[in-house]
Amino acid sequence: MHSGRTDRSYRWLLGHGARQTWHRFRDDWHAQPDPARRRLAWTITGGFVIAVAVMLGLVLLVRHLDSTGRLAWETPLVERAGTWQWFSFSTALWAESPGNSVFMIPVVLAAALLAVWMRRPLRALAVLASFFMLDLVVLAGWLAWNRQRPGLIEGGIAAPGLHSFPSGHLSQMVAAYGLFTWMWMRASRSLAERILAVLPLALALADVALARLRLGSHWPTDLAAGVVIGAVWLAVIITALRRAEAAGGR
Asked: pLDDT per residue over 211-236, tens digit each?
């Protein structure tokens, strides 16, 4: 007689929580003023086009420099990185973790969920866009130029057969962690704290950049391009969020 019971005691907690989160987001999203929602959507859309254009411009620039021999300095630099005694190969494998998608995706999803439960739907979407939409921008660079990875250290074991330009690790770190940093700086009234907020981001970027170089996973210009395109996308997301909030959104 109890085989058809559907009371909440028989529901999965994760499923119930997911439904509650979605309902909260949906209700808060519909409660946002139309101008705020439009500004967020159109600014991100327009910014995406600009970011892809910048990405393709970087491809043309670095590809030209590479074809004319102006990047010959990269090979000895990567080889020298492979001899660093103060930063071992095994240490670099661990040190690159903050920029790895396996690490970043849970962090980004947690930040978006927190924004939803704080009733900040626009901020939740901005957090998700900062990471996942950037993948498409980076993909445009990879499709435009299938640059081979260095493969100069440890037989290229840490240089998978994927596109090298630009660095997806650094681009996503700049965009996602940069957005978190900007939110922290914006919320603080202390000048010292705002300055201090930049330090973890700078250290994390330096750590991952050196780790990727030490592993032989990227050429130096891959890393630089990752920082540039990540900064462009971060500017797009911040602009979209500020414009939406100026229209009464949150």
From this structure: 999 998 999 999 999 999 999 999 99
**Are 169 and 96 contacting, i.e. CB atoms less than 8 angstroms apart?**
yes
Would you say 212 and 89 are in contact if contact means Cβ atoms under 8 Å apart? no
Closest CA to 250 of 48, 112, 115: 115
SS3 content of the chain, % helix, strand, coil (to 5): 75, 0, 25
Q: How many whole angstroms from its chain centre is CA 4?
A: 46
Cα(119)–Cα(124) distance, integer angstroms: 9
107-123 pLDDT, tens per residue?
A: 999 999 999 999 999 99
CB within 8 Å of 211: residues ≥ 6 apart: 87, 91, 92, 93, 95, 96
Angle of helix 178-187 versus helix 220-246 axis, rounded to 10: 40
Q: What is the pTM of this model?
A: 0.90
Residues 6+ apart with CB under 8 A from 88: none
What angle, 0 to 180 degrees and rounded to 10, lies between the N-to-C axes of helices 220-246 and 34-67? 160
Q: Are 218 and 149 in contact (CB under 8 A)?
A: yes
Half-sphere exposure of 51 (CA within 13 A, CB side): 30
CB–CB of 208/155 below 8 Å?
Answer: no
